[in-house]
Amino acid sequence: MESSQSSFRRDCLAGKVAFITGGGSGICKEIAKQFLLHGADVVIASRNIQRLRDTAEVLSAATGGRCFPVAMDVRNETQVAAAVDLGLKKFGKIDILVNGAAGNFPCAAEKLSYKGFKTVMEIDAHGAFIVSKTVFDKCFKPDMHHLLTQRERSQAGPNTEKPKMDACQYGKVILNISMTLHYAGALLQTHAGAAKAAVDAMTKHLAVEWGPYNIRVNCIAPGPIQGTLGLQKLNPFANTAVTDSSAREEQGSGGQRRQAPQEGQISPRTAQPVEADLLVRFIPLQRYGTSQDVAHAAIFLCLPEASYVTGSTLVVDGGQWMASGNYPLLEPRQNAAWRRAPYKMAESRL
Predict the structure, then answer these.
(1) Residues 219-277: pLDDT tens digits?
(2) pTM of the complete model beyond 0.85
(3) Angle of helix 114-121 versus helix 190-210 axis, rounded to 10
(4) What's the topology of domain 17-239+287-326?
(5) Residues 6+ apart with CB under 8 A from 155
């Protein structure tokens, strides 16, 4: 497991309990790890109980925290309710919900079956709602009602010196893991894009409806994250041979030309096959993201410092989605040629 470097206080999530769907692998596994490293107790949930147990054992040993695995299918209301009950029995409460369970596969719309579309929609969108509603009913609403009642009683009592409840400390948090591919209508992603667009909309609606309970609901939209199955599946260059001679040459230091790695070789910059590494050229920050980048964004959204942030989507993609329509101009030599183009922009008369 990678070593972790964080600017957050190591105890910034102490006393919190997080329930993370999809926590057995990928980005959500790293979110679970970082939450544990920063003091939280964590429940990880997915369908594969053996993988969950292995992950929980590894994370607990690596962090010294308490990680509890529970099996469930986010599409099954009965299983979700049972899993939430187990989490509550283990830790007594839930403060943070991360909806990270997702399904995806590249497929052209004309080849996409109704069942395939329905399955992804059910896992991503229906599942996020089922888990959110279950946690809200069983935990968030009762907890916040109890705390608000206590606060009202303390304010109405004769002792005016009683401290008021700190809304930042006692509020609840829901984080939905979304994506950016539907922003610009990415190819082969009709099903997943539609599902994540629904998740984005649901985030806003729940933020409005549940805000009075002091529940904040936000999204995180990761971009190309190194080492994830998503990048392997969705990188548009992953299965593209490098045949353009201009793509085989790179600018060396001092202006000399050097030969780029050939097809099938491994790029020293990203440890990815060189074909897949082409995507880095078209990310404005010129690197792939890491799971830690996403996990640290998740920590921020759970802290009191983000207590006035709700209904928002935090995009963690290095600017990639905004540049996706400018891929040719972001190629180094074409970008330089564009900047030297022999034309003059009209000056403003204002």
Answers:
(1) 999 999 998 988 888 887 765 433 333 333 443 434 444 444 444 555 554 555 555 57
(2) no
(3) 30
(4) Rossmann fold (3.40.50)
(5) 162, 164
